Please model this.
Amino acid sequence: MTIFELSKEHRKGYKLPHYNIETQEINIPGHLLRKEKPKIPEVTEIDVVRHYTNLATKNYAVDVGFYPLGSCTMKYNPKINEDVSNFEGFTMIHPHQPQETVQGALKLMFELKEMLCEITGMDEMTLQPSAGAHGELTGILITRAYHLSRGDHKRKKAIVPDSAHGTNPASAAMAGYDVIEIKSGPDGRIDLKALEEALDDEVAVLMLTNPNTLGLFEKDILKIAEMVHNAGALLYYDGANLNALLGRTRPGDMGFDIVHLNLHKTFSTPHGMGGPGSGPVGVKKFLSEFLPVPILTKDSKNNYKLDYSRKNSIGTMRSYYGNFNVMVRAYAYIKSMGKDGLKQVGEMAVLNANYLRKKIEKIMPIAYPDVCMHEFVATCEQLTKETGVKALDIAKRLLDYGFHAPTMYFPLIVHEDFMIEPTETESKDTLDKFAEVLETIFKEAREKSELVKNAPYTTPVKRLDDVTASRKPIFRFKFGEG
Amino acid sequence: MHRYIPHTEEEIKEMLEEIGVDSIEKLYINVPKTINEYNLPDGKDEFTIRRELLKLSKENVTFEPENVFAGAGIYYHYIPTVVNHLANDQKFVTAYTPYQAEVSQGTLQALFEYQTMMCELTGMEVANSSMYDGATALAEAILTAVRVNRKEKILLSRAINPEYKQVSKTYCSSQNIKIEEIGWEKSGQINIETLKEKIDQNTSAVVVGYPNFFGIIEDLQKIREAIPEKVLLIVVAEPVALSILEAPGNLGADIVVGEGQSLGITPNFGGPGIGFFTTREKYVRKMPGRIIGETKDIDGKKGYVMILQTREQHIRRGKATSNICSNHALMALVNAIYMSIMGPEGLKEVAMRSYNSAHYLAKKLEEKGYKLVFSAPFFNEFLFHVDENYAEKWENMINKGILGPLPVEKIFPDLSNMALGCTTEVNTKESIEKLLTHL
Model:
């Protein structure tokens, strides 16, 4: 049932505060006054409460169970972070208040920035971008501003490996670059020869994820950085997979010039069904003049300030100062974990991934069998050939057993694959149970494949037809048609 | 082990054994060790974190909502208690992008209903399931218009929120798109004669506020009549105003975007809010962002899925219509819950009161000798002339717990000695009188 079908004219769920201001004349011309009321539902408070509470129960979430979505780092979101981010001193401040009246907020942002610089090995950072892809666009615009500031106008290419996140090429294209894709080598890592061939004086940047989306560490990273820099290009770090490296190494130490982070991945802020996220961008000192304004600074008297005075700034990436409430959560998380806790995060994420990899390789082959970082990619191509059961079918069957499915069909270079990321907050028991269930499903696929092909059965709806949904799209509720 | 991590010593040993290595160190065989530990403090307990963050939050000055008379893009409206209760349900909060539709029907249906409500409010045919904020929504609307008619000149009202203008310029900077600003007449509305003169073969779109940054209600009908059909009309709307103003879709708008913060979201120091993006069905394949559509399952039961993903970065990669991936879905949920609880009548009452209080305040200011800057009809914000010492008065008011009308010079450096006043349904007669005593 939709909320529109619960609606009855003149039903009310609100009562506004007492109001005693005399009625003023309305001087808006008639043609600019609304004639028909919008068909927004008319319901009572209990209708609203039941509707959304019932909708919530139709969601799978980290708080419901295991969510091994590769590349998305679905770790537990600590509840203290939710509480502190809801303090009125954080939620009820206006972005145009004088800076002296928001010193607590600015101090928090400044300290967060400093901690993130320490974690990434970068010199300066902006907290403005609202998501990872927004951070990518910021980073690529910085790249562009840097080359142009040196009068280097011919760099029109951005190199993106075929194992990169889909947003990398999209962001590079948005910044006006031609995207050059390079293929991975047989070991699932960047092919240095292919890179050598692609690097010329028209290349502006190499966008790299390390560990890459196969969960493998680019072990030639120092060499790669040298090659990229020798060609006069910059090295960009997609921070979606930083979780694995916490406490061990830093993008800045590996030779990266620009890095974006995903606070909603590595730093445990919830993803909220699609956002809000937060995608801070850090840079080495020589690029700091290009960061979007404002930049957080502190004077000798410990006054925190928003500095707009960077004349080579790329501009601003969004209104005001970014997703402040998400930053509060990340700040609380880093303070809770501390240096030791963060190191444990990296170690246990890597331990969990390798343990699960070992369990799963008995069921489905690992695409690139090697020690992995925080995630790995397994393929059921063989099973598909034998039984016709696809990765998609197995994913749907996993839902019946109470697990969220891993990422499927990504990266594009592996067929019928699962990208599995267990994260550090899952226990050995959960991983054992997951492997057991996967084994059961493989058995089902071989013995009664139809059962798996038609899954799921126990979910709020059964297998949905998304092909027709896109071919004959219905974008909104059609009133009067039920 | 840290409290968020479940591993016992014994389990770690068993796991290493299964992997076939004798230490965790061996798992990092490919990774250079560049640090031993971060230069960060040790982890803290929950009690301490709460105390420290509470202390930090108290280092910010907050205001009773009835004492806030500043808006400029972020508004203090009444938020019914149910909104936060429901939106904080962790089954919404801790879910990811709905990649597995069968176990994400809560999210998907809520977003589908949100899209429907935004279409109703704006008079448009399609809405996406959110952008980061009003500013990025406008920037992407401009990029969409350029994709539609492949022309590169944008005529943008100078009376658009400067934050939105700056962001649009940043987004367009690498794409050869030229943004030209059109000033206002004495009335505060866009100068239609200038607009007509500036339109040429290369013009892709005209961008106006509704109401504009100074609260002035632009005459969309006149603007639509003044521009050729092929030039897109992009409207930056304040959603609360749309329950009393004619829907932009009915007045010829092609894309309607804006900031949804005023629909049930706290100010949050400016973020997160939510950008909304609505347009006509014929442009749907050119628009950015995720769209949720209705479909059926194999039993014929109604359900919801993400649709038209072929436009998106997963498949089109370097040719995608936009790179937006994580959006502001949770805030779209907040908007949907807020609109559900308020209904069309509640929204209208909020808009009417906001309007009424602002006009009452303007009248009282005029009685005190202050002059309004513009003559055209305004919604709940208006610009008025102030003395040279206003900035000082403004800070004094802050010390008294009042966030007074905003000195606008901070935002529009060439507009000196003017302030932007704003009210919503929560300002009281008493708070307005208190404000007046400080002016």
